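Backbone shape codes:
===
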Amino acid sequence: MRLKLLALLALSVFAISSCRKDDSELTPDPTNPQDLKLRMNQIQLIASHNSYRQMTTDTVFAFLVSVQALIPPQYDPTTLDYDHAPLEDQMNKYGVRGLELDIYNDPSGTAFTDRFVNSYVGLPLPSNIPELSQPGMKLLHIKDVDYNSHFPTFKLAIQAIKAWSQANPNHLPLFINVETKSDSPGDDPFLSTQGFTSAPIWDAPAAEDLEQEVRDVFGPDLDGLFTPDMLKGTYSSLKDAALQGNWPLLGSCRGKIIFIMEGNAVQYYKQGHPSLSGRSMFVYDTPGQPEAAFVILNDARADSAQIRTLVQQGYMVRTRCDSGTMEARNGDYSGMNAAFASGAQILSTDYYRPDYRAGQTGWSDYQVKFPSGHVGRKNPINASDVDVPEGLTD
């Protein structure tokens, strides 16, 4: 009997650790009922929106306010009035387990070296950041205008994320939303006449360059990632794998990073890779499509019923708790509450901590966190009948 029990224990440990990185880094607890009963899609985590972003340069921000009536509404400075802690602080101090990186293609290394808006406010045009003059994916919010970033390049950011993951090998799965952008002020007819230029486009070669940057950091075996091939397994498509519940147990995806792409590069990234075969990243796609395992529906209030249905079907959904600084200004928790109740697994916010002006006129102490204070929690929609504690740690 003792030998039989030892064998069962060994099998349990193997089942938990087989999808993880280096077992020597880990001390898995095979008695943790959450790790043994919940699957990756049966949890909820708090993510930060535009996680890399630093506050707009003061003089640029003041200039945008002064010309607000003349610029396109998507550049409304009101929506830019927020800041983010360094990525490590977001994860260590505030329990963030989802990040968002906005990236632009820059095959020549010349598209982002200068900041054109600086010419209006008496600041130097050259960035004087060496990495911006090298070819590769750049990390920033708005070309020529909202350029302050904790990391100038995508590769530097994911190197830091990898290092954090390796230093915290038992962390809950970490979801990295990669928005591939090409929009810029130079696309506007009026602003283009003022000297603003468009950003480089995304195409098939750029999608391959992006894939290579991930492999340059995580290696050809994509060690440390949970990839589309791992979810698909023997199913005919990613969609089928998701809807048939092939998501891994929580214990087997601790310490894993999951990349999900949206934006202009998605169509090229999918080409020649049915169900994202051989790719490092998932994509946000339309429900029912072969590559659809993740869906993005950002309006938690309006989309709550649809999100709930998709979560029940087996998809993973990303939504937002707040947008454009409005909730932090007026203390409105309706979006957060709708997001939590919807069952969306990835809950994005700019306010995992209150705004630094909380308590001052025009600013509330709005903060997105789970009532229990845990890093994550059991999903209220598709795991309500799973008999485990609600709060998740690490």
Observations:
- Residues 2-17 form the longest helix (16 residues).
